[in-house]
């Protein structure tokens, strides 16, 4: 376990998390959006999505440690900051998120009937807009190419900042708000 520069945010690796889950000594919180949680999550995790994250919903038991996780660790870091702002003195998150958990070969709970992942939804919407605007730009008016350029700039900004405005907008759609299907 290591401490990062963000207050007292501690990180835990997948192997340590696996051991802590076996000992039932932690409260594991998934901060991804409900559709992501419904599709796949670490067994034993509770959903408190970052978009509706309320520190009052997080148990403050002295005997159990709170561990947050998301897809890669970015959103769990943001959720940890909210806990620090609410007065939590130590918060831990899973280094590398559920991606690292799966890479380590540990089991997840998968629901095949859940909505497709937000990342795939973003790819479908962004790709459709780029294709449509390119075709319209080639056959109707070159002004439609502005939309392709805008989408390209948005995807580049998303990659640089590791945040996705389109993904956040898609996460607010009703079918993405269900945590179980």
Automatic annotation (TrEMBL):
Keywords from the named record: Membrane, Transmembrane, Transmembrane helix
Boundaries of every Rhodanese domain copy: 22-110
Record-linked InterPro entries: Rhodanese-like_dom, Rhodanese-like_dom_sf, Thiosulphate_STrfase_CS, YgaP-like_TM
One Pfam family named in its UniProt record: Rhodanese
Entries under Gene3D superfamilies matching the protein: 6.10.140.1340, Rhodanese-like domain
Record-annotated membrane-spanning stretches: 122-144, 150-171
PROSITE patterns in the cross-refs: RHODANESE_1, RHODANESE_3
MF GO annotations: thiosulfate-cyanide sulfurtransferase activity
Name the record gives this protein: Rhodanese-like domain-containing protein
Species assigned in the record: Nostoc edaphicum CCNP1411
Lineage: Bacteria, Bacillati, Cyanobacteriota, Cyanophyceae, Nostocales
